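Check out one such.
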Amino acid sequence: MYKKLLGQTAIYGLSTVVIRLFPFVISPIITNAFGPQALAPFIDFYSVAGIIIVLLSHGMETTFFRFAEKEQNTQKLISTATLSVIGASALFMLFSFIFRQDLAEAFKTPDQINLLVLMLFVLGLDGLSTMPFVMLRKAGRSKRYATIKIINGIINFVLVLFFIVILPKLGSSGIGGLGYNKNFGIGYVFVANLVASAVTFILLLPELRSVRLNAFDGALWKKMMAYSWPITIAGLAGVTNETMDRQFLKYLLPEGINTEQMAIYGAVCKIVTFLTLFRQAYLLGIEPFFFSHAKNENSGRSYAKLMDMFVIVNCIILLALCANLGWLGPLYLANPAYNIGVPIVPIVLIAAVFLGIYLNMSVWYKLSDKTIYGAYISVLGAAVTIFANIYFIPQYGYWASAWATFLSYLAMMTVSYFLGQYFYPVPYHLKKILLYLLTSIGFSVLSYYLLDGSIIIGNALLFVFLALVLYFERDTLQRLRKN
């Protein structure tokens, strides 16, 4: 079971790593080419991208997997879920274009209307691609899934590299009359994203052949929406926790300072991608597994063991990053203008660990059909985020945003654990998990803040933590070697 899960996670992980790695690698080039003020529109617009994607998919990914376990008519299920998402995405692109000027005014960026439209169409195309990717996951076609994701990443990477690095060196004549326009600047990144999303959707068109307009079932759709709307609320609240603090910075700080702080905060938070890559890969592989093994007698024990593995990997990544943040942060950002924001990274990293644990625990409300509790918990987290940002940003800037994220995910993780143990008990090894968490967090704080980012002591503490893990997990490692 574990080998199959790890195999699926490895394939999904490869595609996730590649699709995230290309922009992640190109990010230092972008920050080097554009200062905080020039980068601000990109951070600004894409900070609301998650909200839009959640609305376009409206929880149909998780809902599809849940209903696939009990719905006999696969054709009807696929068509109903897919047409729901396609309809939402198509209407979104239509209305975005019609009301583009009003949207630009709402964003307080009327001079950036073209960039806003590009971003909105990127999101519309990503929405159209949502269910074809879900179909591939359900069918177990992880290699095709990974291939298309990788192609998307390659196209985006190559185009950004061409527009930002190569084209400016060719002068005003460029290639075939295409010359670099300095005034367009960061807009080239939007164009690269649009082309990559369009090609991805074209590659996924064969998956849509199984969709039939006459197979759409209104009654089934209502049942699916009853299951999915709490997931949508939870998703919206989750995105509020993840990215909407950029908007708070923009609206709550004085003009001039706001866009600079927003850009610096958005840029340094990219470092957290080191940790979130594993989480995203793991969750892509684990969600179908949770549903398919829910009826197994020892499912709870399996979920608990998987939580152990998940926490261990996250803690190792957290400590490794904090131990080396003193040199890794400035090297990655590649522009001294952003270095002032590096000290908030450990706080955001720890918050990301809390979020990963919460998402892993979310199995309890998905399997017990109590998705409304997922919405409640996410709304709680969003309330903490909103309150902390509104109250503290005017005084503390992006430090308030970092601590708001920390407190929000800590609250969500804690509340979810106790509710889960009441409604759908899973025998998590709580003492061991707390030992790993508190030790890695303590070592991270000690190495970066108290010892002034000492690389030698930080990595020594990392090896101490690894020795601790090897000691407590020796039986598990022996069983894995035997198999």
Q: What stands out?
A: The chain has 23 helices and no strands. The CA atoms of residues 354 and 409 lie 6 Å apart. The mean pLDDT is 84.
